[in-house]
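To whoever is on call:

I kicked off a structure prediction for a single chain this morning and the downstream step that reads the tokens threw a length-mismatch warning. I double-checked the sequence; it's 327 residues and nothing unusual in it as far as I can see. Pasting both halves so you can look.
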Amino acid sequence: MSKKFQVFVSSTYQDLIDERQDTIKSVLDLGHIPSGMEAFHAVDFEQFTYIKKIIDECDYYVLIIGGRYGSMNDDGTSYTELEYDYAVSTGKTVLAFLHSDPSSLPTNKCDADPHALAKLEAFRGKVSTRRLVSFWSSPHDLKATVIISLSKAFSELPGTGWMRADTAPNEEILRQINQLRGENEKLKEKISSQSPKIEISNLADLDDSFEFPYTAVSRLGESKSSGKSRKTWREILSITGPNLRTISWASEIKSSLESHIKRARGSYSVSIDPDYAARIRTQLELLGLVKFASGSNSKTGYAGETAILTERGRSTLSEILAVRRSD
């Protein structure tokens, strides 16, 4: 009973050729079907109508954003953004991957026109506010993040998919699968309840604050400066938690905080001291908000530490981000 999912890969083209090819190969390595408009380097209205039909046939929509906004239609909207808007409107599962620092990309991979840069920034903001996103800083980093995110989506948000007609499951097979899933969940709960817990007196709680140092590069890239940020653990969870609802690399915690500070300062880039980043990860674990584990993919050979919100982390984050009525 092998089901294959179809994944549409969307991005600008010339600046992200290698990243697109790596992503397409990752989909193939995972045993599924990549789709994209590799034949249409320039897109017109009629071609976009066809692209929408391809998106309709897909189970997942992967968006990669680098340093360019892309070719635009007569209304000044890029076809990449049009693809994204259409995928969202049809209820597709969208996985978005944004470059963590577009200004660090080579000049031939970035927009020089201020108008295009403004549109790119607005597009990034739209994608970031409407759903969870992942950040990448290199093709290698992107490939690893795509593999983890897709694997998690295939498991937790399965699409309709494709399968051979002669392998369709019967009711008895489905019943057995559901029974095994239930037994698996019970075993997981039992193991979790028996895991030893670390007791630390005077452990800082959600409303206690923590100060950590960072280094920032100026907007023009001409100088470096040191700074300190003080956040409560509740604030740190609100910044890092949204990207940990699904399994992510543990380094996503540091990247999320750096991106937050970078936006607040208007800097080119921000780097948090690694020792303090490690302390932040440890505290989130001790507070029972984040669970860490070793992760790998047997097909690609990638391995590393992963992170995901615990049930307490999820409920606490929902409480923090909930929109409340004004009296």
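Update from on-call: the warning came from a stale cache, not from the record. Cleared it. Sanity check on the structure: The two ends are 54 Å apart (CA to CA).
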